[in-house]
Amino acid sequence: MKKIAIIALAAAISASMSAQPLKQNIMAGYNVSDVLEKYVYTDKNDAIHADTWCAGYVSSPIEYATSPVVGEPLTYAGYGESGPSILLGSSFNDQAKGRRVSVYSITEDSKTLRGGQLYLSFLVNFENVGTKSQSPLAGLSASYTGAGGNRGTVYVRRDAERRDTYYFGVRLIEETVDCPQAFHTGETYLVVLKIDYMTSRASLFVNPDLSAAEPQPCAVSADGTLKHAIRSIIVRDYHNYDGRIGNFRLAGTWADLAD
After folding, report:
1. Residues 16-27: what's their mean pLDDT?
2. Residues pairing with 136 in the sheet
3. 233 within 8 A of 56, measured Cβ to Cβ
4. Structure pTM?
């Protein structure tokens, strides 16, 4: 009976991947200035808190770092996800440096979301990117507690010469590939991360036209074999970030990213 139930769940999610977004409105219920994380994973095998923003499990938590705070909404023409954002940089004060992992746990199941294609879209507006090295921002993980298992991550790095420009990059597992064009602080961008189990690739799109067919990505990473199921959405706040990120949507087709 348990095997039949799992097969039925997999079939239902597989059907939904071609019919509607898998996850949307994941900031519903939050107001500006709310604390984002509702639970702290203290062990990588803690029981799942599904459909909830939690502090991801890390073996050495950063002292003085706290949950990110909820910020004002972001908007982008042609993209229908609404709701408040997450304030980047809000996890840290002068005593804390490093990165804090916030995880939106999706499923405990290790089989369902492990085939075909998955798309994670979001909006981001940086006031400051204070690091010249490639630093993780958001992505997908094979762990619902955020304990490693990254399978597609969007990175950012500041331009080496200018403080008001930066670059997006994409990583499948180990290698990060940059988009060639520079982007500007103070502007809101629509970012789409795609992972493809058939080709073991992670692709990145910035400001794509969601009403048109899927375009060519600005960067592709193919540095490993994609085989583990996706179980969470990850956001990494960093003491050198200032800005907002939000309006997340997880979908199984390009068409499901549009309004």
Report:
1. 79
2. 155
3. no
4. 0.91
